Amino acid sequence: MSGDISPLIVLNLKTYENATGYEAEKMALRLQETAEEYNVALTVAAQAADIYRIKEEVPQLTVYAQHIDPYSYGAYTGYITAESILNAGADGTLLNHSERKIDHGILAETINVAQDKGLDVIACADSVLEAEQIAHFGPDYIAVEPPELIGGDVSVTTRPELIIDSVETVRKVDERITVLVGAGVKTYEDVTKAMELKTAGVLLASGITKAENPVEAFKGLIGVK
Ligand code: G3P
Description:
Blueprint: E1 8-12, H1 22-37, E2 41-46, H2 48-57, E3 62-65, H3 82-88, E4 92-95, H4 104-116, E5 120-125, H5 128-135, E6 141-144, H6 160-173, E7 178-182, H7 188-196, E8 201-204, H8 206-209, H9 214-222
Parallel strand pairs: 1-2, 1-8, 2-3, 3-4, 4-5, 5-6, 6-7, 7-8
This protein binds SN-glycerol-3-phosphate (G3P).
């Protein structure tokens, strides 16, 4: 990474066609090779069904599920358990993404279950208020993403007051929680701005997954040519 910032980059593969199945595995491999070359911390949030194949192909990559449910072994047809993603090799899980919101009672329970099993949790919040509420549940990370900017070309970093408020608010509740921001993040300037505003990094998707060349887009994001 050029400069002296060292952001965490979390790439949400969502259910994009070019980031599903075999394509997810290949994209993960190429991006992790680039991350290692430039010494950048990369995490990928994958569909549950793709975690095992990504970990088989790229064991050193940190892989999260995009969602889990708070249930364990038993009669829970169709749910995604912490045990199943751990068995697949996952390191953690995203929870409460804007596209997969969870009732806060269930979210609190799911965070506990995930952490008890040894999974790290990035809980998403759509506002400073939600970040504050979720901070009381003690996730490892809170990623603040204004829903209206998700998937668009306007970066969350154009709202510095939102980021500053989020960082301060979460820190007041629990200073152990690391804050990330996301939505519309596409450039090195977006990443450096997020870091200047005291976040630990960014959560993004389309800036890389929808780019013509995801590796080049990733390089641009981390400030290398
Ligand atoms: O989870 C990341 C996400 O919701 C932001 O999406 O496409 O705006 O980077 P995007």
